[in-house]
Amino acid sequence: MSYLENIRTFVRVYELGSMSAAGRDLRISPAVTSARISQLEDHLSVRLFQRTTRSLTPTEQGKAFYGGACAVLDAVDSAEAQVVNITENPKGSLFVAAPLGVGRRLIAPQVAAFLAQYPEVTVRLRLTDRKVDLTTEGLDLAFFLGRPEDSTLRIRKIADVARVLVAAPSYIARRGNPASGAALVADGHDCLILRFPGATEFKWPLLTEDGPKRFKVSGRFECDDGDVLTDWALAGQGIAMKPAFEVAEHIAAGRLVPVALETPPEPVQMACLFTHRKQQDPKTRLFMEFVIERIGSVIREAAM
């Protein structure tokens, strides 16, 4: 087995924290993954991981080797890029994550277009509205709305995304159209809340005459899937805060109506998130530029 492949396997096991996860990421069996780590340990005459039936943790030698291993892989990737026309003919797999609404409406169509142009690349797209961890989940690139908590990652801003509060005509006929965030709270409107496990309260950031203000809203409908909130809003169950591009067609068709127009939601940043190492990967950069170039106009048009 190639020493370089053993190093690649070690890096993925270290980053993902398990042999089986690394094997799935590299598309090899757990047995092959374990064999590669054992071969590397034999070559180095050290233990790189402490193994038990329930856990796998890097040793001090493993932690020290990880930095050098990443540097070796970066150097090899950079050298290959110098001699191979990889920008025009990229190869390999990309593991990409995106929020559900963003992924379905903006990213997934571009994946199809990208793969048609670059047939030797495989894109694995994971859609979820929860926060993802690039390192532990083995992601090459993540699109997201908001601001990341991990300041060690690289961010490529795409646009400020306009948001809107919307409700169905049937809800407005039953409960009225609140003019502002203050009325939204005072009148006890049913708010459709995007909430994740562990959240104890929820506030909507709205723009008032005195600047941005967070309004504590409530409602009986909560979900961690933004598209479910849209479906509930269409069914007249309450008011949802949505990126404008996600509900633009519903608004144009009259199925949803903007509410609380005196205090619109604060725009939210859309960006790409990646590690420094992934920034050096030509196919990652190429995919990122390909997608950003094509989705920017959709976001801008929805905000008009």
Largest sheet: 5 strands, mixed
Share of residues in helices: 40-55%
Helix-strand string: HHHEEHEHEEEEHHEEEEHEHEEHH
Q: Note the overall shape.
A: elongated
Class of secondary structure makeup: alpha/beta
Q: How far is the first residue's CA from the last residue's CA?
A: 57 Å
Weakly predicted, low-confidence segments: none
Mean pLDDT: 85
The percentage of residues in β strands lies in 15-25%
The side-by-side strand order for the widest beta sheet comes to 4-3-5-14-6
Beta strand count: 14
User: How many DSSP H or I helices?
Assistant: 11
Taking Cα atoms only, what radius of gyration do you get, to the nearest Å? 23 Å
What is shown here, in short?
The chain is an alpha/beta fold.
Provide an overview of this structure:
- Helix 5 links the parallel strand 3 and strand 4 (about 120-125).
- The radius of gyration is 23 Å and the shape is elongated.
- It has 11 helices and 14 strands.
- With about 300 residues, the protein is of the alpha/beta class.
- It is about 45% helix and about 25% strand.
- The protein has helices spanning about 5-15, 20-25, 30-45, 60-85, 100-115, 170-175, 180-185, 225-235, 245-250, 275-280, 280-304, and strands at about 50, 55-60, 90-100, 120-125, 140-145, 155-160, 165, 190-195, 205-210, 210-215, 220-225, 240-245, 255-260, 270-275.
- The strands form 4 sheets. The chain has a 5-stranded mixed sheet with strand order 4-3-5-14-6. The protein has a 5-stranded mixed sheet with strand order 11-8-12-7-13.
- The longest helix is centred in the N-terminal third of the chain and has 24 residues, at about 60-85.
